[in-house]
Specification:
The chain is of the alpha/beta class. The protein is built from 20 helices and 5 strands. The protein has 3 domains: 126 residues, 3-Layer(aba) Sandwich (Rossmann fold), CATH 3.40.50.620; 122 residues, Serine Threonine Protein Phosphatase 5, Tetratricopeptide repeat; 178 residues, DNA Cyclobutane Dipyrimidine Photolyase, subunit A, domain 3 (Orthogonal Bundle). 48% of the residues lie in helices and 6% in strands. Helix 3 crosses helix 4. The longest helix is centred in the middle third of the chain and has 26 residues. The N and C termini lie far apart (71 Å).
């Protein structure tokens, strides 16, 4: 009986062994399996990982390599150009097929189309499997057959569809080729910064499939029951913090979906049911972002709403520097930006506040903020990032109204009521009485002296006046409305 040729499994945003459709299909063929990662960020455009995400990626690849070694296999690392690397790898291993899971971002979709054509032209079977999302963007349509632009009807349509399939178990063994294949050392991909500035990111995260499972278990056992009430509180551990694991596929979306549903079914308490419903709605929000980017790829570079194409944005490098460094004089904004720089992550409520501050208080372009997030977030996701910034700027689908301008003081007092979040990330305000921690410029001189705060020296004065900045933003929006 003739032996079955090898199959190359080309990994991208699916850095896990469980619930990996391409890997499962390759193992099911019965021949050797070559699990490969091709490093070619220059081909990925805006989808290429930024500095913080590369740190997480390094850890995820290392974890995956260890997991494969435990199953009698290994991870083969190659450098691009991708198509040449895949064809060379197939020839070296005797493979007659290349399997991969879909990635729904425009740069990947365009490259996949070219790769599939080239692989088939070279006599190789090329297959792409459904993964990365719960509801494929090309399969969710309005009654008229078009894409959705409003979340609520999109959510209703998704929840009316058949439930996402059950996760696929991890293969007990991944058969490897008889001879080891050449592989680049992980360090040679230069994903880690030199000189190193990533200690905070490495301390904050445990990349890889095992770390994702542990994080999911912590959420199910702890924060899920109180998720509806606590997810907006940056001072509490009230969110899942699964976003980087979902982005890199250390945890599959189907795995998270079914795990949350199973916990709610096993726990009859009202809190579990409400927590599961709220969390799954957030997962559908993630689906909506991918849906929008798939159908409106131009939103990476320009607003979905064309009337915002010539919005009167300001050019103020000093203001942007104050924002990006957490030196605006607004404690909640500064705490969020410092948390981002230190850990590669920021609480979602605070993301909305800092984004609103950039585009509405400072009138700086949303694309500058989006680019900063893509470079500094470990969960930097082109779809979610684009959608989130356009939502905040009022120029995207189902957007936040332009006249909704978050007041950083009121947001802080509501969602960080004791000031614990600000005290952690803005330690120079750590001894300021709670009444003033979100508005230090209004504190009496005695309170500032007692707290050791000298405005303009060890903590900045506000870079703008909230009332004046709000009026300026509303005036700019009025110009846009008059032209539309």
């Amino acid at each position: 009986m003739a032996s079955i040729p090898a199959t190359v499994v080309w990994l991208r945003r699916d850095l896990r062994l469980s619930d990996n459709p391409a890997l499962a299909a390759a193992v099911a063929r019965g021949g050797p399996v070559v699990v490969a990662w091709v490093h070619a960020p220059g081909e990925e455009g805006e989808s290429a990982p930024g500095g913080a995400a590369r740190v997480f990626l390094h850890g995820a690849l290392r974890s995956l390599s260890d997991a494969l070694s435990a199953r009698g296999s290994g991870l083969v690392l190659r450098r691009g150009p991708t198509i040449k690397a895949l064809i060379d790898l197939a020839r070296e291993s005797g493979a007659d097929a290349v399997y991969a899971n879909r990635v729904w971002e425009p740069p990947f979709l365009e490259r996949d189309e070219r790769a599939v054509a080239a692989l088939r032209a070279n006599g190789l079977e090329a297959r792409l499997f459904a993964d990365g999302v719960l509801f494929p963007p090309d399969a969710v349509r309005t009654a008229g057959g078009g894409p959705f632009r409003v979340f609520t009807p999109f959510c209703r349509r998704c929840l009316a569809l058949p439930s996402p399939g059950e996760p696929i178990p991890v293969p007990a063994r991944v058969p490897s080729p008889p001879s080891p294949l050449p592989s680049w050392p992980l360090a040679d991909l230069r994903l880690l910064p030199d000189p190193p500035w990533d200690a905070g990111i490495r301390d904050a995260w445990d990349p890889g499939e095992e770390g994702a499972r542990e994080r999911l278990s912590r959420f199910l056992d702890g924060a899920m029951a109180s998720y509806p009430a606590d997810r907006d509180r940056p001072d509490l551990d009230g969110t899942s913090r699964l976003s980087p694991h979902l982005h890199f596929g250390c945890l599959g979306a189907r795995q998270a979906w079914h795990a949350v549903q199973a916990r709610a079914a096993a726990d009859s308490s009202p809190g579990a049911a409400r927590g599961a419903e709220a969390f799954l709605r957030q997962m559908v929000w993630r689906e909506f972002a991918h849906h929008l980017l798939f159908h409106f790829p131009g939103t990476v570079h320009g607003p979905l709403r064309p009337e915002f194409g010539d919005f009167p944005w300001r050019d103020d490098p000093d203001a942007f520097a104050a924002w990006s460094r957490g030196r605006t004089g607004f404690p909640l904004v500064d705490a969020g930006m410092r948390q981002l720089w230190a850990t590669g992550w920021m609480h979602n409520r605070v993301r909305m506040v800092v984004a609103s501050f950039l585009v509405k208080h400072l009138l700086l372009p949303w694309r500058k903020g989006a680019a900063w997030f893509l470079d500094t977030l470990v969960d930097a996701d082109l779809a979610n990032n684009t959608f989130g910034w356009q939502w905040t700027a009022g120029c995207g689908a189902d957007a936040s109204p332009w006249f909704r301008i978050f007041n950083p003081v009121l947001q802080g007092e509501k969602f960080d009521p004791r000031g614990d979040y600000v005290r952690k990330w803005v330690p120079e305000l750590g001894r300021l009485p709670g009444r003033w921690v979100h508005r230090p410029w209004q504190a009496p001189a005695a309170a500032l002296a007692e707290g050791g705060v000298t405005l303009g020296k060890n903590y900045p004065r506000p870079v703008v006046d909230h009332t004046a900045a709000r009026a300026r933003a509303l005036a700019a929006f009025a110009v846009v409305r008059a032209r539309s």
